[in-house]
Amino acid sequence: MYSVFLVEDEIVIRDGLKATFPWEQYGFAYVGDAADGEMALPLIRQTKPDVLITDIRMPFMDGIDLSKIIKKELPNTRIIIISGFDDFSYAQEAISIGVDNYLLKPITKDKLAEVMKDAKDKLDKENEKDNYLEQFKAESQEYEQFARVRFFNQLVGGTMSVSDVYERSEELGLSLDATFYDLVLLAFNPITGNSSAPVYSKFTARLSEQLMQYLKCCPEYIVFHWNVDTYAIIVKGDESTIETNTRTLIENIERRCMVFEDELNWYLACGGKISRFSEFPKACQQANKRLSCRYMNPSGHIFTDEDLKAIAENTGENNSATIDQRLVSLFLENAEESEIENFLNNIVNSQTKNGLKSMLFCKYFAMTMYMCVCDFLKKINFEPDTVLSANIRNQIENVDCNTVLPMVSEMFATAISKRKNEVGKQSRSQLSAAMKYVDDHYSDSNLSLNQVAKEVDISPSYLSAMFSRENKTTFVEYMTAKRMEAAKALLRNTNDKTQDIADKVGYKDSHYFSYIFKKTYGLSPKEFRAKGQGT
């Protein structure tokens, strides 16, 4: 129900309209009245009515001045003016500033009913359009996230000029207007203990939703779903608030993640305070370096330079030059090639100390890494002898302090590449299954990314990323395209009503179906059918 406010200096007219007109019957709640514009203005600001009915000629503040203020402050409020025949030129001025309609005195019930019905129709159409835009915006969010990830990669890659950063951020609706920034990387459920694609997890979905709801309410944070299991959050502030804003963010993330600590692993690291866009690549590298500690300390959560220092100094009780093969296996199962250098620096510093200065230990280290890689390759169904270099054993026998780390790095890169290729094959198979599921179920109005992801047993974020990477389109765009193609066929080959066609292609609301159809093809379903498009 909409609201209406009346401003009329003649008490007989005001009380008569208030008491005798059936406002609710026409879809309105009578929320207040006043004798002139001056008295009405604070009440209107408080009630924010959908419709304002005001006389033109009133003492203190007339209807024209009141209408100008309301149009400026409450542009969505529909305004109806009341005037006499001798006020017609005055009424024309009111209409020129955006007043919707006018009532000539004496006001009859039929005439008021006609004007109120017209106002309600206009409000209905506006709300309908707004609802469609909101729904379309929500469905388009997946594409917007893809564009945001691309922007973030360019930002931390240092490939954009300052003017490009401002231009692209404005296009994406991102407010990069602070004097200081920090960068927080958050990874959860990154260590799965297997090499398959991330499976569907209701805990991951729930945590993601909670974090997004919190971050969207805080203008000082900008969040990017950077990759499958990592979020990047830009913290904004000035010199006096940036550290507090970062600390508050970490505390809120920790509080939410700890609820799921029995189901999910989570890790966090900051890049440090910066004041220029050109410093984002360095901040991202620093955050990544700190986050790499998770492979050395899987039970930890928030990593800082103190953790890097502890790893370098090996402050634990075990001070021997041994290799923890479980950590190597964990790394190979989950890491990217770009993380190899940090991991080797960590594991060499913490486990081997100065051992690599010894030729004997170099061979021991290389052989241990080789065995870890072989075990991992077998785990993902590869024969090590067919994957690794043919003379790898000869290289191990002749390794020295200068060649040992490059050789191990190459073995790691080969193993990770094979793992990613296998995951890619599995992912493409799952993507095909997801696309087939959409093809078979697009008529289901409840079909969603989460539902399809659950059906093929992978995480929604991973499925979304696969759609964007492999198909160069988003999940919603693919689903919508299927629905629109089916709608075109039904419009061409049947006499079904628009409502029936909407139902058959997965839309409960025929008006929203028509809105999407016209947005896709530039014609309404009725116009498409009338012009015989596509025949």
By DSSP, the count of extended strands is: 10
By DSSP (H or I, 4+ residues per run), the number of helices equals 22
CATH architecture of one domain: 2-Layer Sandwich
> What gross morphology would you assign?
elongated
The helix fraction, in percent, is 55-70%
Radius of gyration: 32 Å
The neighbouring-strand order within the major sheet is 2-1-3-4-5
The named CATH superfamily of one domain: Reverse transcriptase/Diguanylate cyclase domain
Please state the oligomeric state of the protein chains shown. Answer: single chain
- Distance separating the two termini: 45 Å
Q: Strand count, sense and closure of the main sheet? A: 5 strands, parallel
Keywords summarizing the entry:
535 residues, alpha/beta, Rossmann fold, Alpha-Beta Plaits, Arc Repressor Mutant, subunit A, 5-stranded parallel β-sheet, 5-stranded mixed β-sheet, 22 helices, 10 strands, 11% strand, elongated
Q: Mind explaining what this structure looks like?
A:
The chain is of the alpha/beta class and 535 residues long. It has 22 helices and 10 strands. The strands form 2 sheets. A 5-stranded parallel sheet has the order 2-1-3-4-5, sandwiched between helices. Strands 7-8-6-9-10 form a 5-stranded mixed sheet, with helices on both faces. α11 (325-334) crosses α13 (359-379), α16 crosses α18 (460-471) and α20 (498-504) crosses α21 (510-521). The radius of gyration is 32 Å and the shape is elongated.
